[in-house]
Amino acid sequence: MTENKSLLSTILIIIVVGLCFYWFRQVGPGDVGSPDISKTDILEHIKFLSDDKRAGRYPGTRQSRDVIAYLINQLKTYGVQPAGESGSFKQTFSILDSVKIGKNNSLKLNDRPLRLEEDYIPLWFSGNASLSSQIIFAGYGINMITDSLVWNDYKGLDVDGKWVMVMRHSPERENPHSPFAPHSDLHKKMIEARDRGAAGIIFISQVEDSTLIPFKYIPGYSKAGIPAIHISNDIADGILKTVGSSRSIIQNKMGRNLKPETLRIPEIIISANVELKDIYSRAANVVGKVISRNHKYRDEFIAIGAHFDHLGYGGPGSGSLKPDTSAIHNGANDNASGTAGLLELAHKLQSNRQLLKRSILLIAFDAEEKGLLGSKYFVQNPTIEKSNIVTMINMDMIGKMQDSTLTIGGVGTSPMFEPMLDSLSKDSGLKFEFNQAGYGPSDHASFYSENIPVLFFFTGDFESYYHLPEDDWQTINTQGEKQILDVIYDLTIKISRENSKPIFTLSGPKKQKVQKINQKVKLGIIPHYGGTVQGLKVDKIYDPNGPAAKAGIKPGDIIKSINKKPVNDIYEYMKRIESIKKGESINVDIKRDEKIIMLTVRF
User: Fold this and answer.
1) Which domain CATH number covers 583?
2) What pTM was estimated for this model as a whole?
3) What is the CATH number of the domain that holds 56?
4) Residue 230 · residue 203 · CB < 8 Å
5) Peptide bond before 335: cis, by omega within 30 degrees of 0?
């Protein structure tokens, strides 16, 4: 009898331990809180992520690593399984964070040494190289042929193995529509010189420019292969004086005659060494998975993502709209809101994984603000079979919903999406504003380029704090974010339970169209991303003293025309702005409350 009791006790212990182990696998260790999506939990996540202690979540910093640790701990607590590298939650990668001037930079005129950053400065695209040679002055360094103009600064010049000296800008620097404008870029001038055999290029300024070009890192440029240097006005005039000329004489002559001016400068030998050092930092995506119990579909994944990085302390080149201000950019809406949403969805999906047919891949992306680097790295180095990702759902800036309106991008990337979302809209009581295009300014674009159907959830920033230090947790609409997450949760369950996976449909270009806006004038607005409205909707007035604000343009206005020329989208808007000069007044027709209002904007 005693033996039977002992056996029964042993069996009961095994059952209890098994049940505990099963529970642990489902919800994880510790105090996991409620798996339901709640306003309280959303706000707690956002407060942590956007606290000043996180210092703006700049990639590669200690504060960014603190965020990564927080995300991993939360996912572990929920019972989510790791899906990063080598059985971990992390997927690490290196990013080129900046370029600095190295120790081995020098420049001499004959035997006279010059001072770095006072007499000369290497440019961001310069190659690391040494050169000692004579100088050939080649005007503006331009070679072009149009219907009305032929200009070749290199005609009759032998620059092989030598320094080429060229003047910045062009004879028509103030005219953005000049035929010279596309050929005035410094990098293009370097390429022209290098293609002709020049071993190095030296830039001198026009008389309107008084200072050296500031050294700064500009992403996207590869090293030139030849040294590229800008010299000060005093040094340039000293060199030209040896052949009886000056910057003023040359510039006036080329501007007056619209003909190239070239010179040989035999008495000067320039000896230089350029050393620029790339600065890399280590970033990391955080990747977890919720595995379905359905053996038929469990190897297919719905990816849900949000980027957790932001701008750090801002500054020039950071993307801050106060580039001259060094202050913590907390990024509560952009994108602590999306990251908090990712955690809330992870918890609820893990707790209800018995409802799933397909599995869920949860990705917190790093370095989105640097050009979608985290998501690009993931699609190039997927931690699961990429062909098994049936849909990617992205959340970026979902904390500012107004008027129960939510923008959803990528709706045209699968025929399954729109009817499914229409049904959810009715159930949720929210108004969905659809954008069909698969490409957009966030991480889903990386997946769309790989022929993966995508959806992009976004509310914008209606308090005008986008990329400003003022983007703090106090401005978050937690009730609105909860409603959005409830929709995404229901959508995820629906997609996971479909017998057929979403079919990919091409919906717009896979890359951003590169168009530069003339920086001479700025209206002072941030356009609204998303929607099907004809015209350019104003999301934000970021400059309270700018032309738009002074003219009376408000957030929500739709720009319909500029100077009576139609504006149907952002590309037409950029085209119209390019033709405007400082000092001009223009007429802008805007639509507000279903009425057309004509305003006068002065630049």
Assistant:
1) 2.30.42.10
2) 0.73
3) 3.40.630.10
4) yes
5) yes
